[in-house]
């Protein structure tokens, strides 16, 4: 095989791997964004503490896995802990804020971030915890066209897409979904029709929290589990929602995949692409600086063209 | 209820008296704390113009604060160490950044605006972290505090005086703006955009102008803060800083002239005091903030002098 052809085949498989990495980041962001967008759509609440629930999930998984030696028990614990923390916070604090303006919600949930972070630091200390990939998912798999990819990351993509399908089914096809959509449209009316609206809100909130906890647990094996891990992801999830449109699960999915792939490909390709025009060290610096800004540029473009997001209800 | 005017006078006098007494008692650390209050109050005053008067919930003001700080740090690293030369640059930097971010973010309203400003703030943060020329993640030290002719800026009380005068100037400007035709239009943009439009005023231009002035004031505060710490780092640009600036304004009283100063004073005092009580003082701070949101709406000034005469 001539050298140039082999070279392009190699870079094609590298590119495919980066696209898969982007999808993996994307579905993880989707798990976060779906909860945020549901809570905002149904209750009209902007919840900054969603990142804390992600952190709770990661810590619950790491602590349970360390105690029992089973990642899968850890995963179950992360779902339960995040859903419980979410339900508790909703009942104790957030339900008083639904009728308030966004400023009060921002301040109260900012206060909750401080409390969650400090409580976690008190419980687990300032040093990061580490989670191992379960043995059954360690190693890489051979994909078509000679691409090798870690099985665990492939599993995250699969779980994310399965959750997305599950959510579409839940919202679109079930009785609970009908109530959630009705709650978005007119909360007084469905309360008058005999739906226990307070319980519905707690349920929706716990569902969103569980998704955030799941995301935290799944990513905990790829990164270190530490206090403050949730907020950078939360802000990325906000970018996703602004791009996709608030209240739309479909928008959250499309936005999350767009953001995930753009960010990953930008970081992987820009420095070397710029290397074609300038000397390598400068290209790396400029490339990584620009790559870190790419998704915000994407958000700015969407804001110019469609201020309410790609799938936003309001034009 | 104490009339707000008296409360403002008391705050102004108190912020001046504390460092003067501290100098007399030889407590220079207290002077530094008072300087911090004046500078953070100035940053909050900038945010208050957008948030309190214009109803624009910006979660990205750390961008203007940090860029002002970087303007001071970068100029100092190139040998420009005169504060009267640095300040206009910091003001312009904050204002221009606010123009760019505001022009895009103000296409949205409500919760979208909060998320967009937060995201653009984060963009500036990541840029500062990954751009190595001026320290990147490690930040940029300012070896000797920048100079102001006729004063010794390294003397804490003289540096405090500079910050205090700038704070008074910014508050005077805010009061002028609030009482002007523009200020009335801005209040209209907050209270009822549809009616504002019906009398022939576009919300976008009014809100963007307020946002730019707001960013410029916060940028100036950033330059002073960099000089106070003799250090600039991406931490000044982080989302936590944006959150703290919001906390100053809301804790003191949103849309009240001296609210940000009262909020910053309370915050700095609590930070100092609770920090001595427990390593986990941020938990207590969170609890207190939650209490303020749920039970003491209107902040310190609202609590002491009641709701504003006309909201």
Folded structure, characterized:
The complex is a heterodimer of chains A (315) and B (311). With 315 residues, chain A is mainly alpha-helical. Chain A has 11 helices and 2 strands, in the order H-H-H-H-E-E-H-H-H-H-H-H-H. Chain A has a two-stranded antiparallel ribbon. In chain A, a hairpin with a 3-residue loop joins strand 1 and strand 2. In chain A, helix 2 packs across helix 9, helix 9 crosses helix 10 and helix 10 packs antiparallel against helix 11. The longest helix of chain A has 41 residues. Chain A is globular, with a radius of gyration of 21 Å. Chain B is globular, with a radius of gyration of 19 Å. The longest helix of chain B is centred in the last third of the chain and has 27 residues. Chain B is built from 13 helices and 2 strands; from the N terminus they run αααααβααααβαααα. Helices cover 74% and strands 1% of the residues of chain B. In chain B, strands 1-2 form a two-stranded antiparallel ribbon. By secondary structure, chain B is mainly alpha-helical. Chains A and B meet through helix 4, helix 9 and helix 11 of A and helix 5, helix 10 and helix 12 of B.
Mean pLDDT of chain A: 87
What is the H/E order of chain A? HHHHEEHHHHHHH
Tell me the series of helices and strands of chain B, N- to C-terminal. Answer: HHHHHEHHHHEHHHH
Proportion of strand residues of chain B? under 5%
How much beta of chain A, percentage-wise?
under 5%
What is the spatial order of strands in the main beta sheet of chain B?
1-2
Give Rg of chain B in angstroms: 19 Å
Number of extended strands of chain A: 2
* Overall geometry of chain B: globular
Helical run tally of chain B:
13
How far the N terminus sits from the C terminus of chain B, by CA atoms, comes to 17 Å
Our Rg estimate of chain A from Cα atoms comes to 21 Å
Q: Structural class given helices, strands, pairing of chain A?
A: mainly alpha
Oligomer: heterodimer
Count of DSSP helices of chain A? 11
Mean pLDDT of chain B: 92
Helix content of chain B: over 70%
Shape of chain A: globular
